[in-house]
Amino acid sequence: METTEPLLRLRDIRKSFGAVQALGGVDLDVPAAQVTALCGDNGAGKSVLIKCVAGIHQPDRGQIRWQGREVHIRSPREASALGIETVYQDLALADNLDIVQNMFLGRERLRHWLLDEAEMEQAATATLRELGVTTVRSVRQRAASLSGGQRQSVAVARAVMWHSKLVILDEPTAALGVTQTAMVQDLIRSLRAHGLAVLVISHNLNEVFAIADRIAILHLGRLAVQAPLIEFDRRRVVSYMTSGEAGTEARL
Ligand SMILES: Nc1ncnc2c1ncn2[C@@H]1O[C@H](COP(=O)(O)OP(=O)(O)OP(=O)(O)O)[C@@H](O)[C@H]1O
């Protein structure tokens, strides 16, 4: 039995779109300083679930508990204010802005004490370095000129710079080659090492087994299972993804 609540606890989250029930009562725990992989077949409800946490969708029912108390997350801005940052595959950065501008984007409220360009540049550079992101040529590079892996890195660095406690990544390596995938996976480990919780949607089982501490599997809008990685092998994960059950084969 757990004695303390995890950083994020979802209970009985339900969400329908008209007649389509996307989530039928999901319970999920996301602990600090761990990487939780959110898996499931196409249409299982992964995106809808993270959007409920990111403030994009409002659940029809259920409870979101954050650091031990119930919260209602009505917008992405409210999610950010709590310390929840979501990095979407394609929408992570504004192409026409440079890295520094992207890392400070949407934080205008704080402008009065951080307007100084040199200070912003220094903070962005320091955060990227702290996370081991060494591939970026200059923090004054426009986002449009960055590779997919670099874009993910900058988006994640932004989350760290603003003291997020949970970073949600939606298939961060789906469009990346081998080297860039390794870079983003290192970054995810670095987030964990900094004490952040990571919730990562992934279809790639190699990736899940390489980076996750825990696996949560959705099946038809319900949580089929959530447990430490050590309790799974690949066949078991696939079985939960396709049937919602462990299958008949023996464990590990
Ligand atoms: N805005 C919406 N309007 C209507 N139905 C939606 C909407 N968003 C999601 N759905 C439906 O909810 C269900 C869950 O979708 P969701 O995108 O969460 O699946 P997913 O697990 O992320 O799938 P994939 O791996 O293919 O991205 C699907 O049946 C989908 O068609």
Automatic annotation (TrEMBL):
Keyword ATP-binding: yes
Domain ABC transporter, first and last residues per copy: 8-245
UniProt entry tagged with the keyword ATP-binding: yes
SMART domains membership: AAA
Keywords for the protein's UniProt record, in alphabetical order: ATP-binding, Nucleotide-binding
Protein name: ATP-binding cassette domain-containing protein
GO terms, molecular function: ATP binding
SUPFAM superfamilies in the record: P-loop containing nucleoside triphosphate hydrolases (SSF52540)
